Amino acid sequence: MLRRLKEFDQPLLALLAFAFALRCAAVVVRWENLTIDRDAYLAIAENLQAGNGFCSVPGKPTAFRPPLYPLLLAACLALGGPCAIAAVQTGLGTATVGLTWRLARNAGFSTRLALLAGLLTAVDPLLLEHVTQPMTETLFTFLSTALLCSLTRPTGISVARPLLSGLLIGLAALCRPSIWAFVLLWLIAATGFALCRRVRGSAMRHAEVSDWQRGLTIAIVAGLVVSPWVLRNWIDFGRPIVMTTHGGYTLALGNNERFFTDVVAGPENVWSEAGLQRWQRETERRLVESGVDHANELEKDAAMSRLAVEWIRNHPLEFASASWLRVQRFWAVRPQRDDSGSELLRAAIGIWYATTLLAAVAGLARHRHCLPRFHAVLLLTIALTLLHAVYWSNMRMRSPLVPIVSLFAASVFSRTPCGNPQVR
Questions:
Q1: Contact assessment for residue 117 and residue 345, using Cβ atoms and an 8 Å cutoff
Q2: Is 195 contained in some domain?
Q3: Which of 32, 93, 317, 318 is deepest in the core (most CB within 10 A)?
Q4: C-alpha angle 385/162/67, rounded to 5°?
Q5: Whole-number Å distance between alpha carbons of 12 and 100
Q6: Do residues 165 and 140 lie in contact, with contact meaning Cβ atoms separated by under 8 Å?
Q7: Strand partners, 60
Q8: CA-to-CA distance for 353 and 3, rounded, in angstroms?
Q9: What is the mean pLDDT of residues 84-97?
């Protein structure tokens, strides 16, 4: 038995070692990225470490960013600065490869197919690039993949499983509130399944009760995990903010006349810095004219949402065009721009993603009879795609779906990928 276990683990360990080495190499090559604070996570982490609280500017509490990643960065800064950040990012990225393997095994994939899915995740350009950046992609991809693993485990009586699922939902929500879109779809699907069971008769009542009990456990645990953030916001802002004060800005960013004129109907592939700054100045002026306090995050967030909703309501056709562009950007095969400036690299990335996405679509079509087993991964894919059809979107937003694409791309090489789920 020990011999079989050793033979079983060796390919997986080799895959993880390869994934780890790739991420170490990426960090070395892009070391300077670790200190570039694109989304103010490092600024918040530095203030946390200095004892100033959760803020970008000392003395001004913020809820513009979710708390989990800045807390992780603050711990890294205390332990070893950029070196600790690199170690944590590398570890999370490597663990995601292992979780992709686990997800494939949960779906009934053979060991070889599961290894292939893990390999596709290991070499993915998006994940390799973002392991070098202090942004939420690496952590959120790890958490969302772990959540999918917990939700796709073989059915059985286990108290720990819904507890783990609730914990992961809560942590993912504290990393990126976009997970709530998946939770909403998941609840709708679960309710639909329960209603179908009720129609089918009392023979399914026990399963229905069991499902509701698991769902309630998951909801309670997720709520407990998120509650400190909600209470903190209630104290600092006078309102129990569950997500962030960032939603209004990201909604307005892609739903305004300037973006439509410059990018959707205009000549710009990437919104120029000048165009973005022009829109920001115009928006700030409109907010001031409306009496909005610029320093009040809640008030500004609500005002930005109103501006976006007003534009959408008055320009439904333009909104549809902008939404289609956002979906295209979400599923793009080439980055809109590349910091290296290498057209050869962009072309190589384009070939890679065109190949893997086509393979994933082919695998999904070929094994459509397996869709009931894949419902959780499909719901996450649909949820994030729909969310970013409305909010701001680009390639990096689909990083959490890389393990799912890898899963379906690997399935194209098998006639029957969804055999019996593997508990081990």
A1: no
A2: yes
A3: 93
A4: 55
A5: 11
A6: no
A7: 57
A8: 38
A9: 96
Residue pointed to by tokens 């590349």: 338
d(CA 36, CA 73): 13
Tokens of 139: 């952590």
Count how many domains the chain has: 1
Burial of 330 (0-12, 13-18, 19+ CB in 10 A): buried
Q: What is the mean pLDDT of the chain?
A: 87
Minimal CA–CA distance to 97: which of 130, 127, 140, 126? 127
The answer to whether residue 378 sits within a structural domain is yes
What sign results for the dihedral spanned by CA atoms 44, 50, 54, 60?
negative
Nearest-angstrom CA–CA distance, 103 and 380: 14
Determine, yes or no, domain membership for 422: no
- Pairwise CA distance, residues 85 & 76, whole Å: 5
- SS3 call for 57: strand
> Residue 35 forms beta bridges with which residues?
none
Q: Do the beta carbons of residue 132 and residue 27 sit within 8 Å?
A: yes
Query: pLDDT tens digits for 186-231?
Result: 888 877 776 776 666 644 554 444 667 777 888 899 999 999 999 9
Q: What is the pLDDT of residues 104-160, one digit of tens each?
A: 988 888 889 999 999 999 999 999 999 999 999 999 999 999 999 998 876 544 556
| 96-110 residue pLDDT tens | 999 999 999 888 888
Q: What angle do CA 165, 170, 172 make, to 5 degrees?
A: 90
For residue 61, which phi and psi values (nearest 5 degrees)? Answer: -55, 145
In angstroms, how far is CA 351 from the centroid of its own chain? 23
Least Cα distance to 132 among 403, 399, 404 occurs for: 399
Residue for token digits 């501006």? Answer: 307
* Residue range(s) defining the domain that contains residue 263: 2-411
3-state secondary structure of 156: coil
- 35 and 83 Cβ atoms separated by less than 8 Å: no
- Looking at residue 1, its pLDDT comes to 43
Q: Domain for residue 417, yes or no?
A: no
Rounded to 10 degrees, the C-alpha dihedral 367/417/377/175 comes to -150
Residue 381: partners with Cβ closer than 8 Å, 6 or more residues away: 401, 404
pLDDT bucket at 376, cuts 50 / 70 / 90: confident
Average pLDDT, integer, range 53-62: 90
CB-based contact 264:321 (threshold 8 Å) = yes
3-state secondary structure of 243: coil
Q: Which residues of 123-155 are buried (b: 16+ CB within 10 A; e: fewer)?
A: bbbbbbbbbbbbbbbbbbbbbbbbbbbbbbbee
